[in-house]
From TrEMBL:
SMART domains: EFh, S_100. It comes from the Eukaryota. One of its GO terms (molecular function) is calcium-dependent protein binding. This is Protein S100. PANTHER family: PROTEIN S100-A5 (PTHR11639:SF65), S100 CALCIUM-BINDING PROTEIN (PTHR11639). Keywords: Calcium, Metal-binding, Repeat. The gene is LOC118237690. GO terms for cellular component: nucleus. Residues 66-101 form the EF-hand domain. The keyword Calcium applies. InterPro entries: EF-hand-dom_pair, EF_Hand_1_Ca_BS, EF_hand_dom, S-100_dom, S100/CaBP7/8-like_CS, S100_Ca-bd_sub. Coiled coil: none annotated.
Length: 111
């Protein structure tokens, strides 16, 4: 039924989902991907270095064979408050950076 509201149980939260558009689906993926990894060890709301490595090497094909030193550098650059964990805000900055790189590729391809 068009416009119908379904209740989805995600991490125990009751989320109302009304006919998700592609952009909304992308946002949902960005959020759920974070939580898929953040819940693996330590704090459930942040990514440890190990969780960050698992996320980027599994979810980003360009990072599949990233060197340990590159992961260290990425971790250092994302961890703005230097608590050795990547919180959702720090992860959002990472996604924004990726988004801008994708836009640059898009503009380059459409010249
Ligand atoms: Ca941090």
């Amino acid at each position: 039924m068009m416009g119908s509201v379904q209740l989805k149980n995600f991490l125990g939260w009751r989320v109302h989902v009304v006919m998700e558009t592609p952009l909304e689906k992308a946002l949902t993926t960005m959020v759920t991907t974070f939580h898929k990894y953040s819940g693996r060890e330590g704090s459930k709301l942040t990514l440890s270095r190990k969780e960050l490595k698992e996320l980027i090497t599994t979810e980003l094909s360009l990072a599949e064979k990233m060197k340990e030193s590159s992961i260290d550098n990425l971790m250092k650059s994302l961890d703005k408050n230097s608590d050795q964990e990547i919180d959702f805000k720090e992860y959002s900055v990472f996604l924004t950076t990726l988004c801008m790189a994708y836009n640059d590729f898009f503009l380059e391809d459409n010249k």
